[in-house]
Amino acid sequence: MLRPDHNRVDPKRRNNVDHRKRQFAEPAYKENEYPHSLNFYETPPTADITLEQFEQWAIDRLRILAELEACSFRNKTPTETAAHMKPLLEKYLPLNSNTSSSSKLFSERQKDHYSHFILRLAFARTEDLRRRFSRVETMLFRLRLTEYAGLRDRNDFIRSLNFDWEPVTEEERNKYYSELLATSGAKKGEEESSWFKVDWGRVPDLVEGRKVFLKAGQAYVPSKELPSMIIAEFTQKLDRALELTARAMPRLDEDDRLTPILDHLSKNFVTPDASYSSSTSSVPGAEITARNVDALSSHFPLCMQHLHKSLRRDAHLKHYGRLQYILFLKGIGLNLEECLIFWRTSFHKFTDDTFNKEYRYNVRHAYGDVGGDSNRRGGGYSPLSCQKILTEHPPGPGEAHGCPYRHFNLENLTALLQQTGISDRSVLQGVKEDKENQKFHMACNRYVFPYLAVSYYHARVYANMRHSVFEFVHKNELKRAKDEGVMTAAQLETIVHPNEYFKRSYLLKNMGKMNTNDDVKMEGF
Ligand code: SF4
Question: Is the CB of 441 under 6 A from ligand 1?
Fold first, then answer.
C-alpha cells in the first residue's frame, strides 16, 4: 500500500516474514473501482500511496469523525448536524455523486476508501475505540446515505448491494394486511407498495421502534425503511470487520513505519471537550473555600457528589479518586491553600506527619506547585473531562472515581440517584435507557431547551421526552433563565465536562442573587 521509496522496514526482517503474515508482507494488488459515491468498505485497498497521503487522509477523516461525535454529544438534530457538517465534508472529505461534473470523482472516493481503512487499523486496538469508531462511521454513512447522496446514486448503490432480503409475496401481504398497515404507520389506501422479510436481529432499531411486523423470527420491513436496514447492515459488517482487524493487529508490529502513525491517530481521537480552561471556570459571586465545599457539593455532577460522599464517609479516597476530585475542585476555583485545608481536614484520621508525607505533595503537584517544569509552567493539570473520566482508569473495588452512569451497575446507580433526591420514575427510566444505549452524557446532563418550543408540536414532543438528571434538578431555573433571556439555547447545549455542570448548576440556582447582565455570561460553552 506504500510506495517502496518510503519503505523503512529493515530488509532482514522483511525477508523473514512468517508465512502466516504473508498477506501483510505481499499484498495482492487489485485495482479499485468506485462506481458509487457510497461505500460499504468491504475490499481493503492495495494500491500504492505515499506515507504523507496515508497520514494526511487519516487526519482529515479524523476531523470529520470527531466533529460528528461532538454533534452527537451536543444533541444536535439530524438536520442541524447535516447543515453543520456540509462545509466540513466539502473541505476535508468531499464525495460527489455520479451526476456531478466533477473530474475528481476517483480521487475523492479513493481518499474516502483509504482513510476509512487506515482509521480502522488505528481504532481496532481496544473495545472502546472499536465501539466509538463504529458509532461515528455509522453516523457518517447515515448522513451520506440519507442527506447527501443523490437519489439516483443511492438507488444504484442499494441495487448493487445484492442483499438476500426476501420480498413479501402478494399472498402474504393480503394475509397480514392489517398488521402490516398498523406497523408501517400508513393509512388505508396509502399503504406501502412493497415489503421485505429479514431476520429480525438485522433491524434492531426498527424492532425497538415497533415499526415492523414480526412473524416467526422474521421482520416485515416496508420499503420506506430501507435506509435503516442498510445502515444496520453497514454497522454489523463494520463491527465484524473491526473484530477481525483487532485479531490481525499484532502482525502490524512488523511495520515500524505505520505503528507510530496509528498510535498517534488513536491518541488524537479526543472529543472537543477534552481540554478545559480553568480561566473560564470561575463562578462570579460564589464563595469557593474549604469550609464551603459541603454546601457547594449540591451543584456537583453525580461523579463528584459520589467522591465527596465517599470522602466524608471514609475520611479517605484512593489515588485516582483524589486526582479526579482535586482537579475538579481546582477547576471550580478552590485555590491551593484552601484545597490543602480541605484535604487535611477531610483526612482527619491521619496524623499531620502522615498527611504531609503522603498526600500534601499530591495536591501541590496537581496545582503545578511542585513537579516537572512543563507541569509548573502550565499551572498544573487540567480538570478531567467526562470523556477522560468515562474512558480512562475504570474504578476497581474500593475506588470511588469514574462516572457512575458508566461504571455503576443499574441497581447501584438507581440507589445513588435516589440518595441524591432523584426518585422521579420517568427520569430514572430515561437514565436506564441512556445507560443501556451507552449515552452516559445524555443520562447525566442532556439538555433540550423545552421553553424554546415555539409551537404546540414542539411542546408535545418535549412533553413526551424523558428528562436528564440535570434538567430534572434545574427545571424551574431553566424556565426562568429562558423567560428572563439569561441564557441562549447554544449556552445550554449538552454539558461534556463536570466543571461545566457545576458552573451551570450554580449560576442557574443563584440567578436571583446576580447581576444577570454581567455575570451570567457562560463563555466557553
Ligand atoms: Fe460526571 Fe460527566 Fe459522568 Fe456526568 S457524565 S457524572 S459530569 S463524568
Answer: yes
